[in-house]
Design a protein that fits this description.
This protein is mostly beta strands. It contains two helices and 56 strands. The termini are far apart.
Length: 749
Amino acid sequence: MNLSIRRSLSVLAMTLLLTGTLAACGTESQKVEPTVTRVDVAGAPPTRTPTVAGGETPAPSGGASSTAPATGGQTGGQATTFEVDMQDSLSFQPSELTIPANTDVTIHAVNSGALPHTFTIKDVADTGEVAGGASADVKVNLPPGEYEFHCAIPGHTEAGMVGTLKVVEGGGQPAAQASPTAPAGGGQAAAPSGPVEVDMVDLAFQPTEITIPANTDVVIKAVNKGALPHTFTILDVADTGEVAAGSSAEVTVNLPPGDYTFDCSIPGHKEAGMVGTLRVVEGGAAPGGAATPAQAAASPAASPVEASPAAASPAVGGGAAELPTTYEVDMVDLAFQPTDLTIPANTDVTIKAVNKGALPHTFTIPDVADTGEVASGSSAEVKVNLPPGEYTFDCAVPGHKEAGMVGKITVVAGGGAAAGPATPAEATPAVATPAAAGGAAELPTSLEIDMVDLAFQPTDLTIPANTDVTIKAVNKGALPHTFTITGVEDTGEVAAGSSAEVKLNLPAGTYQFDCVVPGHKEAGMVGTLTVVESGGAAPAASPAASPQASPIATEVNLDMVELRFIPDTLEIPANVDVQVNLSNSGNLPHNFSIKDKDISVDLAAGDKTSFTLNLPAGTYDFFCNVPGHEGAGMVGKLTVVEGGGATPVASPTGQSGEAGATSAEVDMVDLAFQPTEITIAANTDVTINAVNKGALPHTFTIPDVADTGEVASGQSKTITVNLPPGEYAFDCAVPGHKEAGMVGKLIVK
């Protein structure tokens, strides 16, 4: 090739290279505008979209990578898919996202709560309202800078549901902020394809049973979806250490076959029931259902029947052992425990659904059986007789099924008990409490009383004198309790979820019963047993009523927190002016409305007000009309009665003490103070008694002034203060409790 041709080709190559470079750089007039596309997937269950740590997203099996292709000589791609959880705390997790600039990025917003939420970047993108348990995507393409995102539901931004979106040149989400789903790993064929995931909520693991292969390195990822710090601890094997709310941690285990217990080592959490079972088996991977709720939706046996408590669904034995015909399943917020039941086919089976959560729930087998709505602390039963097969059960309260409150019933042939005498559980008398007795009806000889934290329900029982009577004490709380009539009878300590019976035959008189677990009686866990003559005839008054009636209250106190009224039942006299003192101790705005009445009172977080009711006799439903709150269980019942004679149902909440007070008492529950405001005298020695009526340890702390130190469940401590006039904040110093809203105000004047 001659010299002139070579020179011409060189010039042409240089021209092409320069042209390509200029095209890539663009000009100043080419301004980058943000582009947004919303992909609405509301109504679908929340799914964990693979996101990245360090700029890589592994390609799922059979699918494409979500990493942008490398350009301009880069050796790796940038993250283009990010996930953020919207929680009822009210917060985003994480609260900070970092994404690459001038790149199409998808943000997957998952509503892990029960309330509706939005993911909103003002003037840029908005998911719209996302129902509890659902998710939605937005797509953005933004120039470098910082942008605020928030929840646009009224009151949520003001309560702190905000975050920061950082848009940077040349990089994506730092590993610490992403929510990566682990890439499919190699190793033995029997090993899980990624980390086995377990959620930590307040106060439970979900699921409570995990199955993994033996003699294999297995990664367990513990995700804290609660408001409190938690740990995932296998004693003498592995421990995540303390995991903050919204964070996660991993442990790697390699174990021989066997069953291992895991728990939360935060004081009080294990005792409150935060435990589970790790099953290590030969020759197989963890069932898909043993890992995360999302995996469970597509795989069998999330939580074998054997994992349920003895009081729930007894384990199926080998050989010719027969399946039981009575089962118990707990309903918590928002899950069933256990999630799998195995029952005999073509046999009458009773399933008792116990609501141990704060929200109302149902146990529903579509087109087969339904308990209807079961209030917090209550239970209901269904009877089924089914052919062999698999059936799904769920909670029919709006949003609960979508949030993962589902389970499975396996009906098997040949394992049922033959028809005949009832099992002991079936033989329990239908009579529950003496509340049904009245007029001249015979008093019952079998009664049931519930033990919760820290109270008996009911607190008054009436039984016939000189008659054999059985009292069944059912522990529906998280703490151990006793039913004790001093010098007469005692159940001994009854574990949470269990029950015990005592048999009595007493002369006429009045007897006190209490719980003898240290601190419980002192915290008010007492009641009255009235034994009456007259051949077993009940007195005209309901046994649940107080022996000495007093006029119905004409002033009642009602507090609103997330997401309930305290108390949720009120009784007032008819056709009389009654003052209602309404306070909002929560972090959200709330409302008090009475159905079918022109009564609606809005109240911002931390505010209080009073109003007057004058209603005819009847029963009225009240609720909070803030969107999503009524559906989440923020409801109550108002009974308006003619005349008087009943003990007031209302219990004092809101403000305590008064100017000049030299003593005050505050209750500590999980996770709040009651009341949240105390008024005491200035420049005077004042004693404050802090009573822990919750299941967790708490403190009453006035920063830089006074501190009770940690107060165990059922115990109390006092502090003495002498302060100048002013307002002081108090809180609980146990990690996570203040952040969860356990705060209050001390007014000194």
